[in-house]
Write a structure and sequence with these properties.
mainly alpha, two-stranded antiparallel sheet, two-stranded antiparallel ribbon, binds heme C
């Protein structure tokens, strides 16, 4: 019975249990992100660097359909910077008044460009595997941002004996099944950060993980702020209710109920 309770308690707390989808997996560690605490918000400098990593590296294979250039405004970029960034892409538009399709430079309401015209094209370019859209990826995997960082930094190890790594696959112990069709996407110094941060693999993995976490939860900071604001009156009301209860019950709590024997009357 006691043993059973321990197993029950462990299954609630242990990350190993949460990660037991596949036996070949390494459990992903829990990293001290600066935005996951109750009162913490996103590091916008990391979002900006992470966007650069996405743009220069991941966007060659992955789409980001739900993120538009306008979403960056006021978060990681100013409006002018976002307009300039959008202007660097070419978008198919039309038909115009002659019924013809045309190309135009991107504008704020365009979403990030897709790397491939459709899923079949994407598969044929990636050894049969489909690079998923990354807009909601931190929501779509159980450990979200922790998993993403582990996955991106999990390359470069020798596969254990017994695991055969086929051509076009890589060994990555954090990926379910441990064999992934995504080649190692990051190498040291790959991205030139404008703020001078050294672009090591772990730095880029961290930044792009924060960026993709923001993509999946753009309302994250506002949600926490509103949550805290709505808790304040609740705390005040709880204090008031406590005080009120004490006040009302005071009369009863201080009352002593006793029994007094009736006085004996003469003659009995
Ligand atoms: C050369 C193409 C390529 C590049 C560049 C690339 N990926 Fe991938 N990625 C893939 C493919 C292919 C898959 C599907 C892998 C599979 O299913 O085996 C994938 C899968 C993924 C997955 C899903 C893993 C899962 O749990 O299903 C994530 C997350 C991911 N990539 C993130 C990134 C990030 C972040 C970057 C940029 C730092 C990046 N990728 C760059 C090709 C790429």
């Amino acid at each position: 019975m006691v043993g059973g309770m321990w197993v029950g308690a462990l299954s609630l707390t242990s990350r190993v249990v949460r990660n037991s989808g596949s036996e070949e997996n390494l459990p992903w560690p829990h990293y001290p992100w600066t935005h996951t605490g109750i009162f913490q918000s996103f590091d916008t400098a990391a979002i900006r660097r992470g966007f650069e990593v996405y743009r220069q590296v991941c966007s060659t294979c992955h789409s980001l359909d739900y993120i538009h250039y306008r979403n960056l405004v006021g978060v990681s970029h100013t409006k002018e910077q976002a307009v300039a960034l959008a202007g660097t892409i070419e978008v198919d538009d039309g038909p115009d008044d002659k019924g013809e399709m045309f190309k135009r430079p991107g504008i704020l309401t365009d979403h990030m460009p897709k790397p491939y015209p459709n899923d079949n094209f994407a598969r044929s370019a990636n050894n049969g595997a489909l690079p998923p859209d990354l807009s909601l990826i931190t929501k779509a995997r159980p450990a979200g941002v922790d998993y993403l960082f582990s996955l991106l930094t999990g390359y470069g190890r020798d596969a254990p004996a017994g695991i055969k790594v086929r051509d076009g696959m890589s060994y990555n112990p954090y990926f379910p099944g441990a064999l992934i069709s995504m080649p190692p996407p990051l190498v040291d110094g790959q991205v030139d950060y404008e703020d001078g941060t050294p672009s090591t693999v772990s730095q880029m993995a961290k930044d792009v993980a924060v960026f993709l976490n923001w993509c999946a939860e753009p309302d994250h900071d506002e949600r926490k702020r509103l949550g805290f604001k709505s808790l304040l009156p609740l705390i005040a009301m709880t204090c008031f209710a406590g005080y009120y209860k004490k006040n009302k019950w005071n009369v009863l709590k201080n009352r002593r109920v006793g029994w007094v024997a009736p006085a004996k009357t003469a003659g009995h």
